[in-house]
Specification:
Blueprint lengths: L6 E3 L3 E2 L2 E4 L5 E3 L8 E2 L10 E4 L1
Antiparallel strand pairs: 1-6, 2-5, 3-4, 3-6
């Protein structure tokens, strides 16, 4: 049985920490202003899906 994770895609506005679903690079939403991060492609592998940490 596999665990189903919620995946986020490019353009999704998010708050918190996320890891690239392909290469595991972590990104974090900024602490200043409203703290919202709009997900883009992974800077390492250009993958477009992210999972919440």
């Amino acid at each position: 049985m596999t665990k189903t994770e919620d995946l986020f895609e490019i353009g999704d506005p998010v708050v918190g920490r996320f890891r690239c679903d392909a290469c595991d690079l972590q990104v974090e939403s900024p602490s200043e202003n409203d703290g919202v991060l709009v997900l883009g492609p992974c800077p390492l592998c250009q993958n477009g899906t992210w999972r919440r940490v």
